[in-house]
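Protein: Transposase IS200-like domain-containing protein
Species: Pontibacter qinzhouensis
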Amino acid sequence: MSNHIHLIIRSQEQTQSSIIRDMKKHTAKTIIKEIAENPQESRREWMLWMFERAGKRNSNNTTYQFWQQHNHPIELNSNFLLRLNWRYGG
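Structure follows.
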């Protein structure tokens, strides 16, 4: 599907929520910047308007909202679950 992504992440230093937060922040800024600076993008104004409209509905944002606020994390706490989910994404 083109409307979501699946990640398998692991860290001994950071929590899952902080990794996802930082990934969303970085990718949203990068993607929005690329859209805004690409004059060949025919849907540029519409996309920026949609992101801005979504951002105004969320008090956590100052301008745009690219990602939804919620996540659906699943802990892969066994090799079986890891293999099962690895195959699902591939």
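Remarks: The CA atoms of residues 23 and 79 lie 25 Å apart.
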